Amino acid sequence: MARIQWYPGHMNKARNQLEDKMGLIDVFVEVLDARIPASSRNPMIEDLVGDKPHLIILNKADLADPVMTKRWQKQLAGKGKLVMAMDALHANNMQILVSMVKKAAAEKVKKLEAKGASDPVVRIALAGIPNCGKSTIINRLVGRNVAAVGNKPGVTKGQTWLKAQANIQILDTPGILWPKFEDQAVGYKLAAFGAIKDSVFSGDDVALFLLENLRKYYLGDLVKFARATKEEIAKINNPDLLLALTTEYGMRDDYDRFSLYLLQRLRKGKVGRITLDRI
Ligand code: GDP
User: Fold this and answer.
1) What is the CATH number of domain 9-172?
2) Domain locations in the chain?
3) pLDDT tens digits for 201-225?
């Protein structure tokens, strides 16, 4: 695998900026991709958040394996930490998110109310890797398009306070990327779900990694996607399977093109509800 050079210096800067702003917020909202809850976590987050109320969102739960999502919810919950799974495209979920934010901030709100404040402002910051759904969540909370939805990995945004519903104010922060490059599987998982640029890895390497995982954990989905039988798939190795699928999908021997197509289908949930971080 080529040495990864994609981690831009401004991501580090973003982390430092977030550290500076931590004192200003009441609740830290960490957005994870429910399909890769471990790989989409930044290892420094726990240290960074410290004792601050911490809300973890397993977003894109509509695309993830529901059994795995339940397990991750349990695994990630802890002292001072609330976890919710959601689909940010579903409007009703914002009500739940708002109540979770209020719940996470309850101690502070109670203190302020005891001092006479009525319905005090709750300040939050959202962070997560690119493409996990931060902008979508912010836009829904604020009720208009304020963040660049669909922004490309590596593109950062400025930091401003945004007024959201229920007296919540949001610090719009850039995503924080996982800097653990030495773990190849993490890189492949991030690439598979579009958190890093497609050009970082060759598509066929990621596709082969995906086929291996589908074979192991989602054979039923693979059988459907391949329009084949379990027996046929069992007989063939991954590189040959990739070539067979390329032909099956009418792309002759252009497996590079097919690999990207497979990843696009995966990202949209068209291969199945696939979670690649197993628990
Ligand atoms: P950001 O880079 O973290 O700000 O991610 P975006 O908010 O730009 O979202 C990336 C893509 O994922 C967009 O195409 C969104 O429409 C889509 N998306 C965001 N949240 C969800 C979700 O919960 N479910 C599904 N299916 N798609 C989502």
Assistant:
1) 3.40.50.300
2) 9-172, 202-267
3) 899 999 999 999 999 999 999 999 9
Alpha carbon 245 to chain centroid, angstroms: 28
Which 3-state string (H, E, C) describes 29-81? EEEEECCCCCCCCCCCHHHHHCCCCEEEEEECHHHCCHHHHHHHHHHHCECCE
Give residue 228's identity as a one-letter amino acid code.
A
Whether the Cβ atoms of residue 138 and residue 172 lie closer than 8 Å to each other: yes
Give the whole-angstrom CA distance, residue 204 versus residue 63: 22
Give me the interface pTM, i.e. the ipTM.
Answer: 0.99
pLDDT in tens, 10-26: 667 767 777 887 888 99
Residue type, 109: V
Edge-first strand order for the sheet with 27-33 is 81-86, 54-59, 27-33, 122-127, 168-172, 161-164
Q: Is the pLDDT of residue 158 over 60?
A: no
pTM, full prediction? 0.91
From 136, 157, 190, 193, the mutation candidate for ligand 1 (largest count of ligand atoms within 8 A of CB) is 136
Q: Determine the residue type at 278.
A: R
Helix (H), strand (E), coil (C) string for 86-154: ECCCCCCHHHHHHHHHHHHCHHHHHHHHHCCCCCCCEEEEEECCCCCCHHHHHHHHHCCCCCCCCCCCC
Residues framing ligand 1 (Cβ under 6 A): 59-60, 62-63, 87-89, 128, 130-136, 149-151, 175
